[in-house]
Amino acid sequence: METHAAHTPEQITSTIQSLAAQIEPYVIEQRRYFHAHPELSLQEFQTTEAIARELDAMGIPYTRPLDTGLVATLAGTAPDAYAADGTPRRRILLRADIDALPVTERTGEEFASVNDGVMHACGHDCHIAMMLGALRILSTMTDDVHGEIRVVFQPSEENGSGAKLMIGAGACDGVDGAFAMHIWSEVDAGTISCEPGPRMANTDWFRIDIEGTSCHGAMPQRGADAIIAAAEIVNAVQTIVSRDLNPYEPAVVTIGEIHGGTARNVIAGSAYLTGTVRTYSDAAHDLMPGLIERICTHTAMALGAEARLTDYTIANYKVENDDEASARCREAVTKVLGRAGIGSYRGTLSGEDFSEYLRRVPGVLAFVGTRNPQIGATWAQHSCYYKVDESVLVQGSMLAAQYALDFLAE
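The line above is the sequence of Amidohydrolase; the predicted structure tokens follow.
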């Protein structure tokens, strides 16, 4: 595609829409390629190579600050894009995460995962494709880029380490604002939600270790059953949400693993639990470790065992959209999709490490709706049946391009 001259604001939007229509097959093709070739967190070597090939084809320079993932730079050619010393007038960071999940795909799609036990069940394949599409659009409109666009193709979102690694490598240095999209199964296809305030939750991980006394399974009175203590703790920690927190405070305490015992006829001498905590409010977030420790300690003690909260890790802080950035995003959605494109969503207690960027610069995460019952796109994120309405992908590309140009033009 040829490079276009500078435009009026109205012409910018119409140009984005026209270019989007041209590149839609490309965006879908890219999504299907990445969907078929998923890689786990910090193992995204082939994914990174494939992204690099696409950037090379567009003539967009990039760096590789980590073993996986990369950072692309699109320099504006508007007269005011850079100062005489080479400093950009403004710099916007666009983030796309690239890792997949340890899920065995059961969608039956022709482009289903070829990597056994690994699947793009959260939409990160879509994020890559949408951002490549945005770059295809923006690379032909550099005269409208009043500054610099930095696109971070980030590894390892699913285990919560990728954003911190990229930021530690300098990805956020000199950035004035940040933008990201998440394809989302609870928002209707054709709409995009970008409300201000908390959108995704504080995400914490914990482990509880339980020590009892092992003995013969036929003589339970001679020991202290660590599995019984673990089972009671599983139930007891649920009272944190129902009895220790304000009912108006969203929160979840989930036990995801329980391990204990060595044989069917032996009272377990030890066991452990792992789980996750999700909160919105800072107050509830701060309370959680102490509440879990209190309950596990005293519940185990009542059963003659001992329990300790041996690990409590803050994986991600909450994603909280900046008011001004959300308003800018809503306007961008209206420009490219019309008022019918404005979606409404209360938010989720799922976590996202895009929060690390938002702790450093103001920005917004937009939920790009993909729910479409007519094609079976109703499965939740992380499901082995997860499916998306691919018609929404180019809408994400348009939004990212419009948001970036609007931000830099201010």
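Note on the example: The chain has two domains: 9-201+318-409, 202-316. The CA atoms of residues 304 and 326 lie 53 Å apart.
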